[in-house]
Amino acid sequence: MNIFLLYVILLKAAATSFAGLAALPAVHDALITHYHVLTEQQLNEAIVITRSTPGAVGLFIVSVGYFVSRWPGALAGWLAMITPALTIIPILHYAGRRVEHPRVKTVLQSVVIASAALLFAAAIPLGRDALTDPLTMTIATISLALLLMTKIETFWILLGGASVTLIASAIGAINKIS
Question: DSSP label at 52?
Answer without folding.
Answer: T
